[in-house]
Amino acid sequence: MVPARAGSKGVPGKNLRTVDGRSLVARAVDAALATPAVDTVVVTTDGAAIAAEARAAGALVVERPEALAVDTASSESALLHVLDELEREHGSVPEVLVFLQATSPFQEPAAIQEAVERVRTGAADSVFAAAPSHAFLWRVDAEGRAVAVNHDAAVRPRRQDRAPEFRETGAFTVMRTAGFRTHRHRFFGRTELVVVEATTAIDIDDESDLSLADALARTRLAARDALARTRSATRDAEPTDAPIAARPTTPSGTHQTLQHQP
């Protein structure tokens, strides 16, 4: 399920804004459809344009009631509404629910698949995306003083000496549907995380996030194109089926091997 409200104060029309030419809602649908374990993708929205974009990308659409489309409405309330609608129309709900955020433009289908498998096999009840974090976190108390949160301020260990920590990215949460409907929130029962790449764990909250995501997407595409050209050139340069005697040899008489870095 992909919740995608029409209203957004930080980035107007956010869910239809594009990263590398593809809207955020379409990118979320693409990632879901690229995950083998996902058989149905549903977008819940109150916007006609978003609904049209979602359908064009291959998703079903459930119209979100106005009361669940206001700023104060939670994503959980929208998911629960969709489950109720599916049960009313089809008489059943899926065993496993994948909640994808359209505001995370770099979803990883392999990570989603891993999370689904953990829930489906009973290893976990809820699995969410998280990125490694080495930050020293602080908060400010009522008197304006800085207070260390996740470390002893008097001891500054090296990064490699600290216990691993992770930050929730918001990209996706995979849940056992029955447990979610009972608890009515995402983190229940045995909760685990799937580690995703920190550099692409971007959540679109403002225009600068969108610009960063678009630049990163274009950089990744350029890198893939360069790698493909390098591999193609490597294949073209490999020895053909010429007679062995025609191939260059080392002084010892053994054949040379040209090693090409991909």
Description of the molecule:
It is a single chain. The protein has six helices and eleven strands. By secondary structure, it is an alpha/beta fold. The chain has a single domain, classed as Spore Coat Polysaccharide Biosynthesis Protein SpsA, Chain A (Alpha-Beta Complex), CATH 3.90.550.10. The strands form four sheets. A four-stranded mixed sheet has the order 6-10-7-11. A three-stranded parallel sheet has the order 1-4-5, with helices on both faces. β4, α2 (48-57) and β5 form a beta-alpha-beta unit. The protein is globular. Residues 244-262 have low confidence and may be disordered.
Please give the radius of gyration in angstroms: 24 Å
Looking across the biggest beta sheet, what order are the strands in? 6-10-7-11
In the CATH scheme, the class would be Alpha Beta
User: What average pLDDT do the residues reach?
Assistant: 89
Q: How would you spell out the order of helices and strands?
A: EEEHEHEHEHEEEEHEH
Low-confidence stretches: 244-262
First CA to last CA: what distance?
Answer: 38 Å
CATH topology: Spore Coat Polysaccharide Biosynthesis Protein SpsA, Chain A
CATH architecture: Alpha-Beta Complex
Spatial shape: globular
CATH superfamily: Spore Coat Polysaccharide Biosynthesis Protein SpsA, Chain A
Tell how many strands the DSSP assignment holds.
11
**Number of helices, where a helix is a run of at least 4 consecutive DSSP H or I residues:** 6
Report the biggest beta sheet as strand number plus sense, adding barrel if it closes. 4 strands, mixed
